[in-house]
Amino acid sequence: MKHSQNDMHRLIFQNQPARVQGKIILMLLVILLGGCTPDGIATTVANNSTQLPGFPTPEALFTPLPARPPYSPGQLVDYIAQSGDTLPALAARFNTNISEIRKANPIIPQTATSMPPGFPMKIPIYYLPLWGTPYQIIPDSVFVDGPASLDFNMEAFVQSQPGWFKNYREQLGDGPHSGTEIIRLVANNFSVSPRLMLALLEYYAQALSNPTPPTTPYVLGFQDQFHQGVYLQLVYLANILNNGYYGWRRGSLLEFEHPDGRIERPDPWQNAATVAIQYIFAQQYSSPVFDQMIGPGGLAQTYSKLFGDPWTNVKPPIPGSLLQPALILPFEPGKGWTLTGGPHTGWGKGEPYAAIDFAPNGVSGCGISDDWVTAMADGVIARSDFGEVLLDLDGDGKEQTGWVIFYLHLGSNDKVAQGVHVKAGDRLGHPSCQGGETTGTHVHIARKYDGEWMLADSPIPFDMEGWILHDGPEPYLGTMTRYSQIVIASDQSEGKSYIRSDR
Question: Is 344 contained in some domain?
Fold first, then answer.
């Protein structure tokens, strides 16, 4: 018996479970109502269209995402360690504790920092409802602006595409910038991959395929009056992506809420990049639109069409048992400075809590300081921009590889130039208020490894001459400890926050 296409679709629909039928009906209503669900919750779109490019697809409509079954309390489940995994974060994701994980895996040494990618583990799981899909969108290696970005000629790629983005120009504070210059600026600041940003621009706004530019200033769908234009939309995007990525890394982001009020917990087996993308879409969309976006027919499909399969030859950015090289305090010996900021964001707002602040004594407000910020290790200056210096410790001059120390708020006067080789303790520049946002003269310092921000308080400790960083109850609070000594972060230049180098 032959069926028409409509008959086939009807038969497929009738053979679906009630849950899936409900999703299909809701999806069709979303499309017919112009991007608004029946309960009145608007879906945010990047241009004046009612649907995302190439969306919805029949495959996405009729193929529910995979899910996990319930587990008995404490049941041991198989887990293969992924890049950047640490025991505290795994314990939080699986709703268990470190001691139980160690008991099930006695081979793990007490000194373990990051888990070796590919390492098989048994983890006791305590099931929680509302866990999301185990489908993974992209690997972590193509989320960060790391080694995988080095072979990418972004300008040539964009110019080879027919979309509006190749001719895009935007006026920023320091003059006009091309679209690719804007992406590089955001990538430098947030350390998010240029490929990922291009894929998201294409997914939301057909930036690479459609010659006609969107008529809205909210090209990525973030309806915020203070974030209009491609640059600020990308800043908004990168900031939320990092909140998702590093929140999952740290084990602090364990659930998020959709616009319809639905709570979702990322699957405990998920990788950080996928959770970051889920987190950004969850700010804007509810099911079934959200399910389409995070499934095989969503962003994953767009990324693969542009750049090929991201899961081919994956090189994990964070190896097992990663250790920080020896670092000294970032000021000259015998000088007393103040810890004015405990662990807080490396760049932007929120995560990653990768940075700390030091201020010289005797300077108030944005006064000029004669004190010097110094190199914390041997290396080469990979980049020297307005207010910024990046010290590359592996000596290849690339900030996307190996250990890198990020310095912010260095004044233009006497600042070290790009390409200069320095030794630990060499002078790099003076603390100031230049670059970023600040109300007082200081230096902001953070670590990266292969382009990934390294959390200040983590199993890979931020260690400077034996001083170890610890989080406080909120950003900018916290301590540095060395044996029985404790320095407490304060922006008041108090005695409790005073620290000096003894080298």
Answer: yes
Task: Pick the last residue of a domain from 91, 125, 159.
Answer: 125
Q: Which of helix, strand or coil describes residue 55?
A: coil
Backbone phi and psi for residue 111, each to the nearest 5 degrees, phi listed first:
-90, 10
What is d(CA 302, CA 174) in angstroms, rounded to the nearest whole number?
33
Check whether 59 has a pLDDT greater than 70: no
Per-residue pLDDT band for 240 (boundaries 50, 70, 90) equals very high
Do 3 and 146 reside in the same domain of the chain? yes
pTM of the model: 0.88
46, exposed or middle or buried, with CB in 10 Å at 0-12, 13-18, 19+? buried
Q: Are residues 118 and 141 located together in one domain of the fold?
A: no
- Mean pLDDT, rounded, of the chain: 88
* Angle of the 194-205 helix axis to the 229-250 helix axis, nearest 10: 120
Q: Give me the number of domains the chain comprises.
A: 3
Q: Is the domain of 440 the same as that of 455?
A: yes
| Residue percentage of the chain with pLDDT more than 70 | 87
Cis peptide before 56 (omega within 30 of 0): yes
Q: If you search the block for the tokens 């900018």, which residue do you land on?
A: 476
Whether residue 107 sits in one domain with residue 16 = no
Residues 244 and 290 in one domain: yes
Under the banding of pLDDT at 50, 70 and 90, the label for residue 63 is low
Residues 250 and 392 in one domain: no
Report pLDDT for 51: 43
Domain end point (choices 322, 351, 378):
322
CA distance 356 to 353: 9
* 3-class state of residue 100 by DSSP: helix
pLDDT, tens digit, 9 for 90 and up, residues 27-54: 443 333 333 332 322 333 333 333 444 4
Contacts of 14 (CB under 8 A, 6+ apart): none
330 found inside a domain = no
Confidence of residue 494 (pLDDT cuts 50, 70, 90): confident
**How far, in Å, CA of 294 to CA of 403, rounded?**
32
What would the mean pLDDT of 175-202 be, rounded to a whole number? 98
Using DSSP, state whether 454 is helix, strand or coil.
Answer: strand
In 63-151, which residue ranges form alpha helices assigned H by DSSP?
87-93, 98-104
Tokens found for residue 435: 């670059």
Q: Is 328 domain-assigned?
A: no
Nearest CA to 182 among 203, 207, 206, 162? 207
Per cent of the chain over pLDDT 90 is 79
Residues 382 and 309 in one domain: no
Q: State whether 230 and 85 are in the same domain.
A: no
Residues of the domain holding 120: 75-125
